[in-house]
Amino acid sequence: MTEKLLKGLPVFLVCLFAAWLLMGLQAPRPASPMDINGFSCLPTLEGGRIKPLDTVARTSMLLLRGKQTVRWHDRVISADEWLLDMVYKPSGADAYPVFEIDDPDVLGVMGIQQTANRYYTFSDLKPHLQEIESQAQQAEQAKPEQRSRYQTAISNLEERVALYQKLQNTLQIAGHDHVLDEVQLFTEKLGPILMTHMAKGQKPSRALMEVLQTAQKYDFMREVAEFYPVPGSRGMTRLEWTSMGQGILDSMTTVGVPPPVAAYAALGDAWRAADAAAFKKTLIEYRNWLDTKVPDDLAHARREFLFNYYEPFYKSMIMYVVVFLLAVFSLLGWTRPLIRSAFYLLVLAFAVHTIGLVSRMALQGRPPVTNLYSSAIFVGWAAVLLGIILERFYRNGIGSMVASAIGFVTLIIAHHLTTQGDTMEMMRAVLDSNFWLATHVVCITIGYSSTFLSGSLAALYLIRRLFDKGWNEPTASDLERMVYGIVCFSAFFSFLGTILGGIWADQSWGRFWGWDPKENGALMIVLWNVFILHARIGGLAKERSVMIMAVFGNIVTAFSWFGVNMLGIGLHSYGFMEKAFVWLILFAASQLAIMALGFIPDYATRRSAPK
Fold it and tell me: What is the per-residue pLDDT for 61?
């Protein structure tokens, strides 16, 4: 009976997780009776691209809080509900603890004693906004890589405060109800007064002064808008979307209130009144209007909303953990059923990972690697693909174990990079040029992933050699062949990617090679992989020495991938990231510790070395 259950374990686990994945296709139901999901699907222009308001909300809360939800009075408030309160009930939103502050000196500036609490409200910060801005201006005199911990923290806080205030003043002036009647009064009655006085050259009247004051308010909204929710007419480009303030000002010379302006004003009225029926009715009417004016943008926003709430990479990450545990437990017993279970589940996780990767490419209309976030996604994807191929050949659980570990770690890295801003940001012009660059980046990233895979396999070799009671010659031989094959693969792709990068640089910058730090880092990966191959083929390094060198390849690749980006020099510098630098050093230290295990002599393990 037990044997039959074990044989059916792989199918059971795959069916269980498949059902879990299918259940995730349904959008989460908000606790509020209001149609928050409908609001979240509305398209807007922000950061140079069309996106749903859901993305604006999620990205903003991640920048402020580092999370996509906030807990307040035993309630968990989603990013979308928070955005609605931000723009339509700003006084209430000021009480939400959305600012993460853990620097004691920054808290000292505001006279707050550091406690276990790390989250503060805008109301807590309001009395100290002038001091925060002053301190931030002083900190910005220094280069990012030269700033102290306090200077970096106060500068980041000032940026988050500015973002918060922009959001509050995008659809209405904070502290003033931006109701539909007010807009209609301005556009239908007061607007013409201004035009009449300008035409006749009369002295300013009281009515004209009221118009000017109101116009100044809307002009302020135009200047500080964080996103642009008012679409242009048919035939206009996406970049001609405008802010709410500009849309209202433009309505002075037109007949009636523009539908987007009226819709957002009516949504605000309904949200403040908690009128779910009016809120939904307005959403339906506005979506129907958008479908006639900007159908492609509306469909794009809906697809990105689906991508956001489905979270394919988060689901893959969870499954990679389960795969890793199954592969580890297979070393203790029930070997074949657990190895098969790990492999089948790895394939399913990889399928979800692939869906997420392809969805991002479709949403961006770009190659898979456009920034650090997408490179982490792709590095993990490629490593898992290679791990599946290894497992298909060797069927010993090693490919599943290492592939799932790399997949999980790279997705964790990507998850933390989401706090840097929009992960689908528009590509820098230098990265959006031609075919050679796209292929160069993809090949180089495959080189990263395969080098990490060979280094991880080698690390597994060194660790199991000391601590696995089941360590034997066949296992050692399998690992050695895996590492050698993957090193050959990574040497080829890293070399090809470097050459393609040179071709692109020659076309774009007029030189094939410029000794840029990123170029040097890519070259180091090529040279190190070739060095390993020469040492092995020439008999200069035995099996264990090759493994030690392969682990060091992880350090070389990590510094090429992340380290050179933080130097602050060169054409590939993306800025210094203090937290990333700390983790980079810790990773290098961990790899050096694993390498040190390789120098422990065989007799110390009380078992003979595999021949």
Answer: 94
**Residue pair 14/348 in contact by the 8 Å Cβ criterion:** yes
Low-confidence ranges of the chain (pLDDT < 70): 1-6, 144-145, 175-215, 233-239, 251-256, 426-434, 436-437, 567-579, 602-611
Rounded Cα distance between 519 and 172, Å, is 48
Domain membership flag for residue 591: yes
Q: Check residue 447 and give its pLDDT.
A: 92
User: Residue 152's pLDDT is what?
Assistant: 86
Residue 399 sits in which domain range?
1-30+311-427
- Identify whether the C-beta of residue 410 lies closer than 8 Å to the C-beta of residue 383: yes
Q: Which residue shows structure tokens 């805008």? A: 122
Q: Are residues 315 and 263 in the same domain?
A: no
Domains identified in the chain, total number: 4
Q: Tell whether 257 and 357 lie within a shared domain.
A: no
Residue 76 lies in a domain: yes
Is residue 175 in some structural domain? no
Residues 438-467 as b/e (b if ≥16 CB within 10 A, e otherwise) read bbbbbbbbbbbbbbbbbbbbbbbbbebbee
Quote the CA–CA distance of 497 and 525 in Å, as a whole number. 11
- Same domain, yes or no, for 145 and 119? yes
